[in-house]
What does this fold into?
Amino acid sequence: MKRPKMTGPVQKVLRAMLKDPTVERYGLEISQQADLETGTLYPILARLEDWDWVTSRWEDPERHIRQGRPRRRYYRLTENGAEQARLALAEISLASQKRRSRLSAAQPSTLRTSL
Amino acid sequence: MNRPLPLPSREAAAESDPISGLRAILEVTRPDADVELIKRTYDVAAYWHQGQKRRSGDPYITHPLAVAAILAGLGADDETLCAALLHDTTEDTAYTLAALRSEFSAGIAAMVEAFTTLDKARGRRERKVAVAQAMGAAESGGTRVLAMKLADRLHNMRTLHFLPQEKQLRKSRETLNILVPVAQQLSMDTIKSELETLASAALERNRHARKASGRLLAATAALLPAARRTRWREEWLGELHTLPTRRRRAGFVAHTLLGVLRMALSLRRPPISSGQAR
It folds into this structure.
């Protein structure tokens, strides 16, 4: 399956956007919600957009003109993107749960040998 | 008080007589001033502002004292000087207007009250109305309150750099739009020109800061593939524009710069091969 590499920051972005998948957010907003610096965020957004997990559009002119500021670029998950992202995140948390339980099962013996 | 080292003489003087500076001005402009009343008023104000600090880290009382000193320089009367010393007490401390009324003359209390009303008027329109009312209530009463407001703003503008950028901009615009015209109408020329200079300088500083970080970002975007460059440049400049403080703008530029190289690589790579890379 073709899929973007699910690095930690990518997961953070997807989790933030999945909180309310239909809401459109602009870059700074996502960087705050995902707790990522813009330098990390924008390359991820660009990649997710290339994969069609995310789409973006310029803000409607009336709004930013009325508020007297430059127009914003708004991002949101595509339907397919939201679905794939949920799936990918679920797989990751499942894998980490397995790893954790294996780790805790292994712990007594490790403790003994280190003693 | 235990003082291990002798303080420099000026500070020692300031400690024993915190209003020595004000006294010195009054000797020149108002030799007949009721210095005893003014000292007593200072003590009350200092008591209530105890423990409060300005953004600069100075004790809060330095602000009303500076405002009184500005007014003293203009030859303001005793009531105005006392009201200036007390001008933030009823708004920012537990001191009530009723208590103030019982401890000071009706004239002083009325000026503090009028000042607080003027100060509370929020929003541009409301503020303009409040100023117009004070002008209308002129005789000397309203004018004296406006003079207090001007002195208050002058000291705040002199110490503006301690405020966050956003607030600096708001105060500077308001100064130019409302307070400078008031100073002009009251023929307070020195105050008017200093307010104007300070406010314009603050706005100008801000424009420069924005331009510089904007240029850096625009140059950075040039690293991206031509087809995508324009969009990202516009997006980043827009975000930059909405950031309120210089520090946050600098951070935004720095972090975006760091990310751009990564981005340039991933955007120049066609999407399909980037998928098969893993």
In short: The mean pLDDT of chain A is 84. Strands of chain A lie at 25-26, 54-58, 73-77. Chain A touches chain B at residues 2-5, 26-28, 37-43, 46-47, 50-51, 69-73 (CB under 8 Å). Helices of chain A lie at 8-18, 27-33, 38-50, 61-66, 79-114.
